[in-house]
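dumping this here before i forget
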Amino acid sequence: MKKKTSFKDLINRSKPTLVEFSAEWCGPCKAMVPILQDVARQVGDSAHIIKIDVDHNPAVARKFKIMSVPTLMLFKNGKKKWMQVGMQSAKTLVRVINEANGEN
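structure:
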């Protein structure tokens, strides 16, 4: 049986973790799907990309004060490195991930 990974474990990785806080009813969130797939192809295994549904994970949404979706956050070693509300381009997300990877 596979152990369920906690959100804290997901963001405590040494590789950057890009989190999209979203909801099934959110049109812009659905539009982010191909963008995030493109980002995943570009960054490969240098980062993790996860999606958190705020309706299914209200405690996490409250903890990070998510008021609007999509909200994207980048974490590294458990620390929030970047946050932006609204749709983002693949170019922006790849740049943010690469900058986080360049940190010492």
